[in-house]
Amino acid sequence: MTVAELKEECRWVLHRKKVPHRPDGRKAMPNNPATWSTYAECMAVVSQFDGIGIALGNGVFGVDIDKCADAVTGKFTAESRAVVIELDSYGEYSPSGTGCHVLGLGKLPGPGIKKPFGAGAIEIKSDGFYFTFTARHLSKTPADLMERQAPITALYNRINRTPTRSLTVAGDEDARFKKLWAGDMSDYGDDHSKADLALLGILARRFNNDIFKIDEEFSKSGLCREKWLTRSDYRSRSILKVIKGEPIFDTEEPIEDDGVDEYLVDALGKGHEGWFPRGDVSLIGGSSGSGKTYWAMTLLERVRLGAEVWGHKTVARDYSVIMHDRGQKGMRRTLNALGLSTEAKHRVIRLSSKQQTLQPAEVLEAAIEKNPGAQAWFIEGLDMWFPNTIKMEIVAPIMDNLQRLATRRNVAVIATVGAPKEKTAEGKDTERYHGRDALFGSSALARKCETVVLISKTDVADENSPRQYSVLPRNGRAERFWMKWADGELTLVDQPPPKEPGRKPVKAGLLKLNILAQFKPGDRIVYSPLLGVSRGFYYDWLKVGVADGIVEHRAGAYWIPQVTRS
């Protein structure tokens, strides 16, 4: 749901001294829709009040984090930054500038809650409450209210069971760590269990919640005793308590405005976003043999020379490549096919067997140290590092570590990953992908990267036919174009005609592709001019989409089914 669509709903109030009011000055009630007004009605008299507010509920939740940002610099505390990133929905600064609100679509698993959090408090609210609304958008959050049922449920449950008093005492962590490591429990009333939890909390932060490493290190400390060594239930319960019972956050990752964003490929214009931002991780997805590596290295070579990239301007930036999933002969054939110079080939690093067993961020860090100067790093075959690409708990730590490294080094990290080959009714591969979540058919990778490029075949069965390239920035307008090999290089071509010309109007076919690209399975579909058709045509098509099984109509809205038909 866009903010513009939210403003069209009758769910707005005015506030004076935190008390909600109607435009006529009478008091409003957050739990009584009859007292709510439209955004336009409230804005007409907003100067007579302290500000405007939004009534929550009816599928809209709000998260209010107090005292989480510096009013001057805008920097966020680590724990609040983690919550904002986890929710990944529309966020804005609070009226004071020292807090933030996140609005999203979903239902809370219980009543609204308010708990101590960081230096202030966190409120998770829905039906029966209202939030002030400032429209001071947090630039690195989505511009729309996103469907976030799973994240808000997880956050609610975690915050709801968080004890109001920290298990550790105030003071310098290094000093506390040294005392605990030596077996000194005096800061905890000589309570061995509390001291165990305090040391485990520090170890969890230092080893990124790695359960095995926490256990290993704790066993070396002065607090280790027979109970720890012989009672596996106590050991597991204690470690899980510090990991799941209390948020464990890195305290050095504030959200901050670090200047103008830099992209390897510049944006086309208003409404567009550049491709492959520095300081972030981006992914290129496609099935084996779709030409991911060829396309990426062709692009990077053009960027290295500061040349135009298929209609986009670039600034000359150097790059390096890490090859993971190819043998030496396969790598040599790829490099020769690209026609790269000897100098360009020297930018390619082929990983040894030992290096392939390490974490990708660890390998990339060492490669950057050995080969400084590259502003872009291309990892070929990143998915080879994932034992399971569907599970967020496996994907998230690997991607987060890469993202932190990209931010710290201010480099653009671009990696290729596989994507599933969807089958037709006849059992043939279609390679038809739907939006950012087409990466392995999972949202895990898409949620953790910036620019996504999807490479797929067209309706034409010929193997030499053009391929479709969908460039999907996180915040900007999607771009789609078709390319084929001609005279030894990738060349832009016109969109090929459909396999069965005239079976469906071209306009309807394009709308279908745009909807499936912009909304993932389970999303609510909302109209946007970016769909490329009029509002009337859009609603007419939805009826056809329901009949064809592409769209579901329920609860007065239209949705993408969990499994879509191409």
What secondary-structure arrangement, pairings included, does this model have?
Elements (H helix, E strand, L loop, with lengths): L2 H6 L3 E5 L2 E3 L17 H5 L7 E5 L4 E6 L12 H10 L2 E4 L6 E6 L7 E5 L2 E6 L4 E4 L15 H12 L12 H9 L10 H15 L4 H8 L7 H5 L1 H14 L17 E3 L9 E3 L3 E5 L6 H14 L13 E5 L4 H11 L3 H4 L2 E3 L2 H4 L3 H11 L5 E5 L11 H18 L2 E6 L25 H4 L5 E6 L9 E6 L6 E8 L2 E5 L12 H13 L16 H13 L4 E3 L2 E3 L7
Parallel strand pairs: 12-16, 12-17, 13-14, 13-15, 15-16
Antiparallel strand pairs: 1-2, 1-3, 3-9, 4-6, 4-8, 5-6, 7-8, 10-11, 17-18, 18-19, 19-20, 21-22
Walkthrough of the structure:
- The protein has 566 residues and is of the alpha+beta class.
- The chain has four domains: 3-160; 173-245, Methyltransferase, Methionine Synthase (B12-binding Domains), Chain A, domain 1; 263-493, Rossmann fold; 506-559, Arc Repressor Mutant, subunit A, CATH 1.10.10.
- The chain contains 18 helices and 22 strands.
- It has helices spanning 3-8, 39-43, 78-87, 149-160, 173-181, 192-206, 211-218, 226-230, 232-245, 292-305, 328-338, 342-345, 353-356, 360-370, 392-409, 443-446, 506-518, 535-547; strands spanning 12-16, 19-21, 51-55, 60-65, 90-93, 100-105, 113-117, 120-125, 130-133, 263-265, 275-277, 281-285, 319-323, 348-350, 376-380, 412-417, 452-457, 467-472, 479-486, 489-493, 552-554, 557-559.
- The strands form five sheets. The protein has a nine-stranded mixed sheet with strand order 14-13-15-16-12-17-18-19-20.
- A hairpin with a 2-residue loop joins strand 1 and strand 2 (19-21).
- Helix 5 packs across helix 6 (192-206) and helix 14 (360-370) runs parallel beside helix 15 (392-409).
- The radius of gyration is 26 Å and the shape is globular.
- It starts with a helix and ends in a 7-residue tail after the last strand.
- The model is unreliable at 164-171, 246-253, 421-434 and 500-504 (pLDDT under 50).
